[in-house]
Specification:
With 173 residues, this protein is an alpha+beta fold. It has helices at residues 6-12, 17-41, 47-54, and strands at 62-68, 72-79, 82-90, 95-98, 111-118, 124-130, 134-149, 165-169.
């Protein structure tokens, strides 16, 4: 992670108020630099990556599933009543690193923040910091994004059909 680093995240959560205030200023600066970076790489991102990077905030979403078969990674997240499914078509195996020491709980893993990058050869990278101190680094050629409202128990006399699934992503080539 190049902008909002795990070290900066730890400082924002430090017990010393002076450290926290300085870290917040640094965080705002990092967000501004990352915004400029996103503007520079936007044309190299596929539509689903752009949507995920620019308009779909997964901050604090609960991570329900992360499966890797060497060619694809499938992640399922829950944010409120919405389930988000991310399918990455990999160009190489994901790198999963663990930050040590990590002072926060590893129960109920949450998506804290993420960063994107893209190279000139259409390889895109997604780095995600999770609440248990893991960082996922995913290098991919394409991502497919599905969102689905979690069905509620129908009330008496209501329409019990499932909510439609919204899909976004690039088409296979």
């Amino acid at each position: 992670m190049k902008y909002s680093t795990p070290e900066l995240y730890l400082k924002i959560n430090a017990p010393d108020l002076d450290v926290v205030e300085k870290a917040h200023a640094n965080w705002e600066d990092a967000l501004e630099r990352y915004g400029k970076h996103l503007s520079e790489i936007r044309s190299r991102m596929n539509p689903a990556t752009r949507k995920l990077a620019n308009s779909l905030s997964l901050h604090d979403a609960e991570v329900l599933l992360f499966k890797n078969n060497g060619e694809l990674v499938v992640a399922e997240l829950r944010q409120g009543d919405t389930h988000v499914f991310l399918v990455y078509v990999l160009v190489k195996n994901p790198l999963i690193t663990k930050i040590k020491p990590w002072p926060f709980s590893s129960k109920a893993v949450r998506w804290l923040y993420d960063e994107f990058d893209a190279d000139a050869k259409d390889v895109q990278q997604h780095e995600v910091l999770l609440s248990d101190g893991r960082i996922w680094t995913l290098n991919f050629s394409r991502i497919v994004l599905f969102e689905s409202a979690r069905p509620h128990a129908p009330s008496k006399g209501s329409d019990s059909r499932r909510q439609p699934v919204r899909m976004g992503g690039s088409r296979p080539q």
